[in-house]
Each structure stands twice: as structure tokens, then as C-alpha cells.
Amino acid sequence: MKRTFGALALLFIFGTLLVVASPQHGLKFGLGGNDWKNYRYTDQYYIDHGVQEVGGMNIVTDIVFDYRGYDTIGEATVLFTAIAGAVALLRPWRGDENGE
Amino acid sequence: MESDMGLIVKTTARATIPLIGIFGSYIVAHGHLTPGGGFQGGATIAGAGILFLLAFGLDEMKNHYNHHIYSSLEGLGGLAFLGVAMLGFSVAFFYNKLWHTGPFLNGKPGTLLSAGYLPIMNLAVGLKVFTGLISAMTAIALYRRWKE
After folding, report:
1. Does the distance separating the beta carbons of B94 and A58 come in below 8 Å?
2. Å from B52 to nearest chain A CA?
3. Which residues of B touch A58 (CB under 8 A)?
4. Contact check, Cβ <8 Å, A51/B132
């Protein structure tokens, strides 16, 4: 009985989420249609000018390494810091016996 | 400590590790033309190294792994990334000067030797990710402190 009620409640929550998240008759996340093109003009800008300004055929690489280069520097720094921390934490400590 | 796997796994790893390495190098080298790039290709090459570590065991890995070389290569990758970003510093940080007025790497878009600093950056980031992931994996395998 309890299990059936739980499953039904889960199904109800899932169905409500499906209705709410549907863009036709529920919440609308962000803009749609022409409004999107008016306010988010940078998307079309990258597609139009990426090859001419940066030179790579892969637009994602253009964005990652040129338009959003600072973000990539931060990403590389995060990777470096994570590996430095892992190596520093996992090395044998002074109190360990028969460490490598 | 017995840490390597059986004959079938070893033979399969011997056959597939070069192919995985070649595929990862292709992803890194063609990062400005096809989907993929430095991060993805470096992770693929690191997958070949992790397969080596899993199949042949830690003792065999210790013979081929030198911590100083891998650490310095990772630092070299990061410094090459920063240095190439500094090249166009007369206009702006991260300005692709090689592509607009550079002496090389400014061919037609779509060829391999084009796109200015993007191939160099892809190589640098691929080297950094590959050596970093191998270092982390070997550290985890080497310094585990639980008893079996």
C-alpha cells in the first residue's frame, strides 16, 4: 500500500514537471523565436564572423580559445591545481610505515 | 604485489594502445577543423595510458613513468598556452595575430596549417591534459594506503 502510494506520488510529480516544463502551456525558460535573435545576437555573430576573425573551421574551438580565452586559462589552472593537490595529498606521509 | 591482468587482456591492450594513441593525436592535431580539441584528445591519449596501467600493473608502469618528466611537461604545456596567448599583446590578450598578419600558420581556412595559434594551443592543452591525468592516475595507484 505504502509502496503503491509512493510510486503514484512519484508519477504525479513527474507528470506535473512534464506539463510545467513544456514551453507550450507552462513555464518558458528564456526567450523564444525572434526575441531570442534580438537579445542573443552573439550566437549569430560567432557563426558569421568566427572563421574570418579567428580562422578555425571548428566554431567551438574558436570560442573556447579566442573569444572565451580567459575561461580556458581558468580551466587549465583548475586542472593544474587539482592534480597538484591530489599528488600532494596522496603521497606517503611522515608517520606512515613501509610507505613507497 | 601481483597487479597485472591475464594474457587475453594484455594482448588486447598491446594491440589497442597504439590505435587509441593515434586517434587521440588525430583529435588534438585536427582540433581547429573537426569536432574535438585539446581537452578531448588529451583525455583520449590519457585513456591509453590508463589502459596500460590497468592491464600491465603498477610495477610495469613504474618502469615507464618518470614523475619529473611528466610534471615538467605539464608545466611546459601551460606555459606554452600562456605564451602563445601573449603573442598578440600589441592589440589585446588572446588576439590571434598569427592568423591575421603572422609569418606562418595562416593558410586557407580548412587546411591543417591555418587558424593561427589555435593548433599550437590545442597541442599545448592536449599535452597538459595528457600528462596531468597520467600523473593523477599514477599517484592514485601508487600512494594508496589501504591494506589489501
Report:
1. no
2. 20
3. 31-37
4. no
- C-alpha cell recorded at residue B87: 603573442
Instruction: Examine the pLDDT at B146 and tell me if it is beyond 60.
Output: no
| Integer Cα distance of B129 and B86 in angstroms | 21
Residue B131's closest CA among B8, B48, B27? B48
What are the residue ranges spanned by the domains of chain B?
7-142
Tell me the pLDDT band of A52, cut-offs 50, 70 and 90. confident
Q: How far apart are CA B94 and CA A64, in angstroms?
A: 11
Interface contacts A/B by beta carbons within 8 Å? 101
> What's this model's pTM, rounded to 2 decimal places?
0.75
Q: Is A69 within 8 Å of B94 when comparing Cβ atoms?
A: yes
The mean predicted confidence, pLDDT, of chain B is: 83
* Residue of A30 and B46 predicted with greater confidence: B46
